[in-house]
Structures are given as structure tokens and as C-alpha cells.
Structure to design on (223 residues):
């Protein structure tokens, strides 16, 4: 290796090698999965807002998170504001009819119930909904404030859902960003987006490898 390259630059290069950015487009059927409390519902509202209001796409919203009345009301309110169709799904059979009713949409966003990664039965139940969606556009949502010791357990528990990218939330709630690297390294999946606050449809960003490495090394702040 070039002797003139500083130790810092070597570390930065090594970190960049560990970061992969997803090239998945938000199109077709898109599913968000992840544990409780990571901000899935707010994140899906942000995505819907960006697609419907900024990109002018025809968007449909589906939730299977019928365990939290607040989540249903929250999404219903956003759907009303954005004038987009919204369906509440209680069973796998209802998922089929909900998807059929939105077949003319450019994007169908599906919010799922937060489940404990330790409960195999709950994860299996959730997986039946995800499989019925029949899409490869599945994003694992996990908070940047998740304890390092919990990251592996959460991602291991959710791996049966075959998520293929990661959305990292709540970067506004931390001042150190090393957890981004820990999450990506544990998931072995690329990064789709990050979220940086509660504002819909803002506070939602796609970062480059350079952006992420600067955050991790403390060269930059997200907000």
C-alpha cells in the first residue's frame, strides 16, 4: 500500500469497502418489515409522500399492522391528506384482494406489524403476509439507536423474511453513527435510505458511500 496514504485514509477506505448502497427502485409492491418502535409507519408515510407528492406517482397504501390502532389511524390520516387509496388487511386472504384493488398503482407500499425477532411463531405469521405480497422489494427497517448486542439478534430473527435491503431510522436521535456500519455488516445487505426526523415527507434521505463513511468517521453530521 502507498506509504503516503495516511492511517485515516486507510480506515476510510476500509469502511467504504464495507458499505453497499441499494439500487432497488421504489416501484411495484414494496414491503417494510422490522421490530416495534423503529419507525416503520412514519417511514412508509414518508416514502408515500415522496412518491405521490414529489414524484407524482400513483401510490397505494396497505397496512397489516392491525395490532396498533394508532398505526392504522396514522396511516389512514396520511392517505387522506395525500388522496391515495388505503386498505387495512386482517388476513392473508384479504391481502390478495387489497393488492388486486390497487393493481393500477405504480407503487403499493405495505406496512407490517412489528414483531419480536425472538418469537418464531409471530415471525412465521408475518412471513405469510410477506409471501402473499410476492415481491423481492422487501426492506428491513432498523433504528440507529438499537444496541449493538441486539442488532445481530434482530437481523437473525428476521432473515426468514428474505429482506434484501435495509432502511436505518432515527439518525436524528444519535450523535455517533457507528451503528450504521454494525447494522450493514450484520445484515450483509445494502442500505436503501436513512431517516432523520418525524417530518413527512421530509427527513428521508438516500446516502452515498461517501456520505455514510463521513458520518461514521465523524466528518459530517446528518442533521
Amino acid at each position: 500500500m502507498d506509504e503516503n496514504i495516511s492511517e485515516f485514509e486507510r480506515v476510510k477506505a476500509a469502511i467504504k469497502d464495507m458499505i453497499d448502497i441499494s439500487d432497488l427502485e421504489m416501484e411495484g409492491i414494496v414491503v417494510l418489515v422490522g421490530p416495534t418502535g423503529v419507525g416503520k409507519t412514519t417511514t412508509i408515510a414518508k416514502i408515500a409522500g415522496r412518491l405521490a407528492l414529489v414524484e407524482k406517482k400513483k401510490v397505494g397504501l396497505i397496512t397489516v399492522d392491525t395490532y396498533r390502532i394508532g398505526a392504522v389511524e396514522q396511516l389512514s390520516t396520511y392517505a387522506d391528506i395525500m388522496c391515495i387509496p388505503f386498505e387495512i388487511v386482517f388476513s392473508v386472504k384479504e391481502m390478495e384482494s387489497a393488492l388486486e384493488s390497487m393493481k393500477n398503482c405504480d407503487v403499493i407500499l405495505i406496512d407490517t406489524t412489528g414483531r419480536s425477532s425472538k418469537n418464531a411463531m409471530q415471525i412465521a405469521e408475518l412471513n405469510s403476509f410477506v409471501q402473499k405480497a410476492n415481491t423481492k422489494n422487501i426492506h428491513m427497517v432498523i433504528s440507529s439507536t438499537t444496541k449493538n448486542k441486539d442488532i445481530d439478534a434482530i437481523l437473525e430473527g428476521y432473515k426468514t423474511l428474505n429482506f434484501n435491503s435495509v432502511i436505518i431510522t432515527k439518525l436524528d436521535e444519535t450523535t455517533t453513527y457507528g451503528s450504521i456500519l454494525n447494522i450493514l455488516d450484520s445484515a450483509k445487505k445494502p442500505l436503501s435510505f436513512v431517516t432523520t426526523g418525524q417530518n413527512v415527507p421530509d427527513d428521508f434521505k438516500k446516502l452515498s458511500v461517501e456520505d455514510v463513511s463521513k458520518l461514521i468517521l465523524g466528518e459530517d453530521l446528518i442533521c
